[in-house]
Backbone:
């Protein structure tokens, strides 16, 4: 049995781990537990993420789990400047290695940052947005049009007004899209298999987590 801690940014991501990732990974004898990144600025418990905060939490958790990974929005990192997802991920790994010393292992510490945010995964299948009676085909067609403008859902950008979550809020205004409620439910309808097929970054991370059972 492999005990995996997944550091999450807020309640939306926590719900996704509980409802989607944990049941999937359990099939591989990897038992995932979401761990919220403390008090932050966003209303649902997320936002205001920094590399130092992430590394501090990794240090706190790594002795109690076989493996620690992160599931954090690129959009949520403050002071990231021009750093890409890959560069941020590498910086977390480097600082964690320095902080943990002999306790650091690439097999046990797996930083992952979702480009550009969790809601990108929901653009894999617009037809999954059928939770509310007043959400209609016209709105789903709008999502499909957005999706076709990008090579993958992960390419939908992180501009403050055009990030994936903002696009969903603009499309579904009545009843409105609520991150922590609708996000995990829609993700559950889509399923991780479709997400990994459409989102290469997510696929690579998920494959690495599935393989933990081999090493454990």
Residues:
């Amino acid at each position: 049995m492999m005990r995996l801690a997944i550091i999450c940014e807020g309640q939306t991501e926590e719900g996704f781990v509980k409802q989607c990732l944990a049941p999937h990974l359990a099939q591989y004898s990897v038992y995932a537990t979401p761990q919220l990144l403390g008090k932050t600025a966003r209303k649902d418990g997320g936002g205001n993420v920094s590399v130092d905060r992430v590394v501090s939490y990794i240090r706190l958790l790594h002795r109690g789990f076989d493996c620690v990974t992160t599931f954090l929005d690129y959009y949520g990192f403050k002071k990231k400047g021009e750093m890409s997802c890959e560069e941020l991920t590498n910086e977390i790994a480097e600082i964690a290695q320095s902080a943990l010393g002999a306790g650091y292992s690439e097999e046990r510490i797996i930083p992952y940052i979702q480009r550009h945010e969790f809601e990108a995964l929901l653009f894999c299948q617009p037809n999954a947005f059928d939770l509310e009676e007043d959400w209609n085909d016209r709105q789903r067609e709008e999502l499909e049009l957005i999706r076709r403008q990008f090579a993958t859902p992960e390419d939908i950008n992180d501009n403050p007004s055009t990030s994936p979550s903002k696009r969903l809020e603009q499309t579904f205004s009545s009843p409105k899209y609520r991150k922590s409620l609708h996000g995990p439910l829609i993700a559950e309808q889509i399923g991780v298999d479709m997400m990994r097929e459409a989102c290469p970054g997510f696929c690579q991370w998920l494959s690495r987590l599935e393989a933990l059972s081999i090493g454990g």
Remarks:
- Residues 118-191 form one domain.
- DSSP finds nine helices and five strands in the chain.
- Residues 40-46 have pLDDT under 50 and may be disordered.
- The longest helix spans residues 11-26.
